[in-house]
Specification:
alpha/beta, Rossmann fold, 2 domains, five-stranded parallel β-sheet, 13 helices, 16 strands, about 20% strand, elongated
């Protein structure tokens, strides 16, 4: 399957596609904004689609911003808090679905810790094992391992997500739990490699330490973020989706956004205003599961085609 470029699409074909849609999901970073800076034309595009009676949803792997913070950041798109879905909500829904009642060891954001605590879970973080910095000696490392096995004996899930203050002690505790405490699940939130920060800069995301912990424990995470089944289940339930062909997913990453949309059997639109650039597409063919139906330079290009509808 080869994607269709928006620039090659006739007005008639574009109108047919837009008319067929009932619900449109958008990623945030690289699609609607770069950090706090709106991407030109993105807000106008979303507002135009609302005017055309399309339901709108926001699906982001951001696990450290509240719905209120995100809706404020996306005010140019008219986004409401209840329109935002993140891996944090997929995680809570998943734990509830399996009647989980044990402790959680978390490498993640303060927001996720608070959400888990408010949902009734006892959350343990690395600082609960040892508050002072670990010394550069084997004695301190052995003590961390010993204290982990004592403090974390009731842990039933290790959750790996974006933690801006991640350190090697946090990884040591996770590996100790997974290798020495039986029947512990390994779950992950955001595991992206990077996220766009501006035209010149990116944020290092958790993939490097998630990969390491999986390797050190010979385990694989059950993911909660795009392109996971857990997030898919959350969206299908939240929006009562019965016909995925009437849904469009718009993103800037083929590995998370497009792969997720394809796994849900949504139509998919890749925009080149974030992590992916035109030369990445032209260099070679993408795997089928990462190949979008459509490609546009940005939502601004789409808006220019839609503004007179």
């Amino acid at each position: 399957m080869s994607p269709t470029w928006l620039s090659d699409m006739s007005d008639t074909d574009l109108k047919h596609i837009i008319d067929s849609l009932e619900l449109i999901f958008f990623d945030v970073d690289g699609v609607l904004a770069l950090t706090t800076v709106p991407i030109p034309g993105a807000g106008e595009c979303v507002l135009k689609l609302r005017e055309l009676n399309k339901n709108i949803g926001i699906v982001t792997n951001n696990t450290f911003s509240t719905q209120k913070e995100l809706s404020t950041r996306l005010a140019h798109c008219g986004v409401k808090e209840e329109e935002i879905s993140t891996p944090n909500y997929a995680l809570l829904a998943y734990l509830k679905s399996i009647n989980f009642s044990k402790d959680v060891y978390l490498i993640g954001s303060v927001l996720l810790r608070d959400m888990l605590t408010n949902a009734g879970y006892n959350v343990i973080v690395s600082e609960d094992i040892r508050k002072e910095p670990i010394g550069e000696n084997f004695t301190d490392i052995v003590q961390v391992i010993t204290d982990t096995l004592s403090i974390c004996k009731n842990v039933g899930a290790v959750v790996l997500c974006f933690a801006i203050n991640f350190n090697s002690q946090a990884a040591q505790v996770a590996a100790t739990i997974l290798n020495h405490i039986p029947d512990v699940m390994l779950l992950s939130g955001a595991t992206d490699d990077t996220a766009p920060l501006s035209a010149k800069h990116f944020v290092v995301f958790p993939k490097y330490y998630v990969d390491g912990i999986e390797r050190w424990t010979n385990r694989k995470c059950t993911p909660m973020a795009k392109p996971s089944d857990a997030l898919k289940d959350l969206l299908f339930s939240k929006y009562n989706i019965t016909d995925p062909s009437k849904v469009l997913f718009v993103g800037d990453s083929v590995t998370s956004d497009i792969a997720f949309g394809r796994s849900c059997q949504f139509k998919t639109l890749l925009v080149l205003s974030g992590t992916m650039k035109k030369d990445h597409i032209l260099k070679g063919s993408l795997p089928e599961e990462q190949t979008p139906d459509f490609i546009a330079s940005s939502l601004g290009e789409l808006y220019q085609r839609l503004k007179n509808y």
